[in-house]
Design brief:
Elements (H helix, E strand, L loop, with lengths): L2 E7 L3 E8 L6 E4 L3 H14 L2 E8 L6 H19 L8 E8 L2 E9 L4 E5 L6 E2 L2 E2 L2 H13 L1 E9 L3 H20 L19
Parallel strand pairs: 3-4, 7-10
Antiparallel strand pairs: 1-2, 2-4, 5-6, 6-10, 8-9
Helix pairs in contact: 1-4, 2-3
EC number: 4.2.1.19
Catalytic activity: D-erythro-1-(imidazol-4-yl)glycerol 3-phosphate = 3-(imidazol-4-yl)-2-oxopropyl phosphate + H2O
Main location: cytoplasm
């Protein structure tokens, strides 16, 4: 079973994440940030991950530490659950429309973390959440899960739609990339025989 549980405590946040890669998209998420919970729920559902998140952070300061640290811990849990990545497809990509918006994501589960973020958000907030924090979450996820991740909004007007389509596109790309390939050899999907480096 490809699953992991990670707890991380700092002076700023306490984060608990439990996930199962080969799940059904069930989620149980409480971060104290309503719109962020909504995005993590969409991420779990469309990646078909079973995901439980409990996050307590210094929201009296702002939401930055909670959002970034949640990305760190979800990324660490994904990396732990994937292990040596034997048998996975490794690559995945998805285009996701949402009304007037279209976004795409491409993922390489490579253990070579990198984020390309081509998403312009015209509003500074969605609800109470600062929109600049979405890049921070995607960056933390990519760096800690060992993903090369490219996320791009091709067009759109509604900021909510743009952000949500980015989460869903990333989820679908990762679902494909992390899937077990029945034709794969019993080795990591690399001509080098190992991933990373």
């Amino acid at each position: 079973m490809r699953a992991a549980t990670i707890e991380r405590k700092t002076r700023e946040t306490e984060i608990f994440v439990a996930l199962e890669i080969d799940g059904t998209g069930e989620y149980d998420i409480e971060t104290g940030i309503g719109f962020f919970d909504h995005m993590l729920a969409a991420f779990a559902k469309h990646a078909s991950l079973d995901l439980k998140v409990r996050a307590e952070g210094d929201l009296h300061v702002d939401m930055h530490h909670t959002v970034e640290d949640t990305g760190i811990v979800i990324g660490q849990a994904l990396a732990k659950a994937l292990g040596d990545c034997v048998g996975i497809r490794r690559f995945g990509a998805a285009y996701i429309p949402m009304d007037e918006t279209l976004s795409r994501a491409a993922a390489d589960v490579s253990k070579r973390p990198y984020l390309v973020w081509k998403v312009a958000l015209s509003r500074p907030k969605i609800g109470e959440m600062d929109t600049e924090l979405f890049k921070e979450w995607f960056h933390a996820l990519a760096m800690n899960a060992g993903l090369t991740l490219h996320v791009e909004n091709l067009y759109g007007e509604n900021t909510h739609h743009i952000v949500e389509s980015c989460f869903k596109a990333t989820a679908r790309a990762l679902r494909d990339a992390m899937e077990i390939d029945p034709r794969a050899e019993n080795a990591p999907p690399s001509t080098k025989g190992v991933l990373g480096g």
